[in-house]
Structure formats: C-alpha cells, structure tokens
From TrEMBL:
Protein name as it appears in the record: Arsenic efflux protein
Source organism, top-level taxon: Bacteria
Alphabetically ordered keywords of this record: Membrane, Transmembrane, Transmembrane helix
Residues that span the membrane, as ranges: 12-29, 50-72, 78-97, 104-122, 182-203, 215-235, 255-275, 287-309, 356-377
Source organism per UniProt: Romboutsia weinsteinii
One Pfam match: ArsP_2
Amino acid sequence: MEFFVSSAEEAFLHVGSMIGFFILLFGYINYKTSGNITKALTKNKKLQPLIGSLIGAIPGCGGSLAIMPLYISGDLSFGAVVASLISSMGDAAFILISANFKMYIFVTIIGIITGIITGYIVDLYNFEVRFNLKSKNKKALARSTSSKNTMNMKEGNSHIAHNHGNINSLAYTITHGLGYKIYIAILLIGFIFMIIAHSGLEYEWIESIHELEELIASIGIVSSIIYMIAFKKVFKNSNIREEENKKLSLSEMLIHSVGEISFVIVWIYFAYLIYDLIIISVGGEQVIANMVLTSGIISVIIGAALGLIPGCGVQIVLMSFYLKGGIPLGAVIANSISQDGDALFPLLAMDKKSSFWAAVVTTIPAIAVGTIIYILFG
C-alpha cells in the first residue's frame, strides 16, 4: 500500500497538479482567443514553417491540432505541418515544465529551430508534390468541416453536448455534470498542497497539512482514473470538431482540459509504478541507469522510434524516465522531435498518406539532432 500511495503522491501532488494548472491556463487562453492566432498562418506562405513551428511549441497538442484544418483545406503547406509536429512536445512538455523549467526551454528551442529548418527544406524541395499529397478531397473535407462548425455555432452551445452520444449514460453524467467541477476542485486543492510542500516554510499548521497529502493524492489518482475512463467513452478521439467546440463553450473547454489532465496524470502514475517496480526488480536506480546509458547511440534511435507511436502516453513515460535519470538527453530530444502527440490523429483520419510521410520526415531530423545532442551532452 505504501508503494502505491507514494507513487500517487508523486504523480498527483508534485507533478500532476502543476501540469493541470498549465493545461487549464492554456485551455482558457485558447478559448478566449477563439483560435484567431492560427489565422495569421494563411497570410504569408513564406512564413508558414516559421509560424507553424512556433505554434507547435505551445505546450500540449492544441497548437498542432489547431492548424491541421488549414492544411486539409489547402491553406497551409506541408512544411508548416512538419515544422509544427517537430516542435511539439505534446503533453510531455507539462511534465518537463513542472520538473525542470530550464531544460524545458532548452528542449523547446532545439525543437523550434529543427522544426523551422526542416519545414523550409520540405517546402523548398516541394515534398508535397513529390509525395503526391495534393489530395483532391482536401477542399471537400474543409467545406464539410466548416459547414458542421457553422451549424454548431447556429445551434448553440447546448446542442454541442448532444453530439457526444448518450446523454443519459453514467460516463456522460461524470464528464458533463458535476464530475469535471469536482475534479477541478480536487486538482486545485492538490495544487495548493504542492505549493505549500515546496515553499520551505515550517509551521505547525503546515505539518498538519502534510499529514493529509497521502489522502488527497490517493483521491486525486482514483478521480483521474474514473474521469479518464468516462471521458474516453464519451469522446472517442481528438478531432477538429471537438477543437471547435472548445472555442465555442467555456464548459466544453474545461471538460476537455480535465480529460487531458486526467489522462496525463494516470499515465504519469503508472509510469512511476512501472519505474519503481523495475528499480526494485533490478536492484536499484544506478543499475538501470547504467543499462540504458551503456546502450549508446541505440538509445537515440529507440527514442526516435517510440516517437512514431501516435498519442502522448509513451512520450510521458519516456519523459518520466528521463527525469528519474535513466534516459540520456539525446534520446529525449530525439523522441521530442519525432513524436507528434494527439495532433497526428485528425491528420491520420482525413489524410493517411500525409500523416505517414509526416511521421517519416520528422523521424529523420530526430535521429540526426538526437545524435548530435548525445555526442555533446550525453
């Protein structure tokens, strides 16, 4: 029991609460701006890889997800999409922000520069034409998506929720009823506990608060698992329509943000459990660190290969291992450049050929840059 509770305390209080705060913050910013920042992309074709890389660097997958409709509609170059995917760290960015902000800045700068250079190379050599990615269906898909979004706006925010499935199901009640509000309250309590724990203050009342940390952490992990399961039942996947819904409704933004937070925290929790189990089984952290470190350049290739897996789950686990001292920086950089997070899902659904070549193209600079970083820093 102590093993499970200690992992819960680390995952929810010391990492998850900080991650949740940032996800809610960026979600609110995206809601208030209504995604207007992406409109700047279509104004100047020459600046698209630059702007695409900068937007992709926004923590989480929202930046890259937001620009996918522009590529599908033919208003955005393939180079801009590649640049955005390269610079994106996905939800793993929130973990690095909370644990090592200086390293987050370093990894982000590397990703942005690599994204810009690769994006301009892709557009300069016209990869979109060479790979025959000029789909005739892009305009039709764009018009279909646009009409659906317009219909959503006309029907109002109340109808948005009805598009999510059975409104009488338990999962829907959890996600759209008091569930997400209760979860946010638990998260904020955890965030306060985290600030107090790292404040360095020593008072009697603080000591009494520390005694409640295990309870709050356990409640937070259980709530995260319940909400994540319910959210997955209601929302089958990340897609463009849901991104539009988040811009139309504050409650939808909060519901989706809580879904993302719960998913990240659950992955972090199991990452800590897996890591601790491995550590116990092999005889200590130093043993596993030596095993990974002695793999040399292979660790970079493995990091880049793991980035080919859509979603953020594997990347979160890898980042957690790095922060524990078990993964070389070069492997983390390679994974960060290669991985596309949830942004690949809508592209995979609407243009499988483009998603395939995007994954291939991002892997090449991932291995190259990761190798350089490994040689320089390890």
